[in-house]
Design brief:
A six-stranded mixed sheet has the order 5-4-6-7-8-10, with helices on both faces. β4, α5 and β5 form a beta-alpha-beta unit. It is elongated. The chain is of the alpha/beta class. The protein contains eight helices and ten strands.
Length: 257
Amino acid sequence: MGIEERLRATDLRVQYANTLNDVDQEINQFKSFLAQKPAGIILVNAEYYDGLAMLMDAAAFPVAHVADLSQPPETLLVGMSHHVAATAATRFLLSKGYKRIGFIGGISDIRSRRSRAGHEEAMRQAGLGNPSLMHGVDGSTSIGLGRRLFTELLERMPDLDAILAQNDDLALGALIECNERGIKVPDDFGICGFNDLEFAQFTSPSLTTVHVPRHDLGRRAADMLLRAIREEPPEEQRVDLGFSIIERGSTRSMPKQ
């Protein structure tokens, strides 16, 4: 929506392709667009830049990027650091008094791997690091997967007192599972999601989450691309739009033990 909003008043039109984090699909779809001679391309969360480098070098049009800031593009990039955001979210949970904080998510894409590493770093620095607190699978995430991952993690770590989920879908799955099991959130257990999707404020209890400015990421990337197409100098070559932690009803300050 952010991309379309910025380009709506121009004579440019948007065509989409979803590669589902598949490296071969990224290359094939880029080649397909390359053959169509577009005005420009926006790559969103590309997984394998090594495979795209030669194609981008051969392109006779600009390429803008929405990506984690750890990724290679040095120009026309808008993004945030998932490692920094997950570290901050874990430290937020620690500040509330939670100690056995799990992480559930995928393992197939750069964002989930960076988030997982950020969580691990925060827990290790707090002297609470434990590989058993991490649980993820390869593939797409969903509410149902959130229920499953949370269940499996809880069976492995029955003294778990909070989780950081890679996204709000997984967090909602964990919340539903807590309700089914009679685990009181936030009285007995804390949940923090990621992305701040619209439904996060309407769950019961509402979800504490990491707000990611998704609309602005798209809008700024489209603006960068449009300037490059028009051969106008960019305002910035790399933009960190950051994040914020939105505290809602799924977390609270735990009693000191």
